[in-house]
Amino acid sequence: MSTTDSIDQAIGNAPSSRSSPLELLVQDLNEQTKTFTDYLRANRLPEPSFERGTPNITSQILLAPEAIQLAREKLLDNALQIFQLVADLDEYSQNIMSNVSFIHSPQLGAYSPLILTPRLDSVPSRGNR
Fold first, then answer.
1. Which label site among 9, 26, 79, 106 has the fewest CB atoms less than 10 Å from its CB?
2. What's the burial of 107, exposed, middle or buried (CB within 10 Å: 0-12/13-18/19+)?
3. How far is CA 90 from the centre of its chain?
4. Residue 107 placed within a domain
5. Rounded distance between C-alpha atoms, residue 53 and residue 8, angstroms
6. How high is the pLDDT of residue 10?
7. Per-block average pLDDT, block size 10, for the chain (129 residues)?
8. Is residue 87 in a domain?
9. 24 is a domain residue
């Protein structure tokens, strides 16, 4: 019995024969993770970690074969899509706002948040629809 069937049985649902969008994303995420980590291990590169002092391997990945770069891109995309599916709108909005990019402002001598907003003349008014 699969994990999905076990969960369905535990909550009283009939086992489903079709995979949900979330299950498909997780399945692809797992495949891309294996491809990516197999490459890192084979090339003796450090694996991503939350440990302090973990080396940044982005520059080395940019020199990796195209299939590895694509696996990394899919990992990032799948992770974001999973977050979007599972989080409600408030959680998603809060996450975006807390991860606003920062740019260096030489005039201020400090980092300032980069917030992209539409120009007022590009926003249609109610009367101009």
1. 106
2. exposed
3. 17
4. yes
5. 42
6. 56
7. 57 69 96 97 92 87 94 94 86 65 49 48 49
8. yes
9. yes
For the record, the structure tokens of 7 come out as 């969960």
Residue linked to tokens 């495949």: 31
Report the alpha-carbon distance of residue 93 to residue 89 in Å, rounded.
6
Q: How far apart are CA 73 and CA 116, in angstroms?
A: 24
- Angle between helix 21-42 and helix 66-86 axes, rounded to 10 deg: 140
Range of the domain at 111: 19-118
Q: Report the number of distinct structural domains present in the chain.
A: 1
Tokens 């003349």, residue located? 121
Q: What angle do CA 108, 122, 96 make, to 5 degrees?
A: 55
pTM over 0.90: no
Structure tokens at 98: 């807390």
- Token duo for residue 74: 């899919």
C-alpha distances in Å from residue 1, one per residue of 4, 29, 35, 122, 129: 8, 22, 26, 55, 54
pLDDT of residue 117: 47
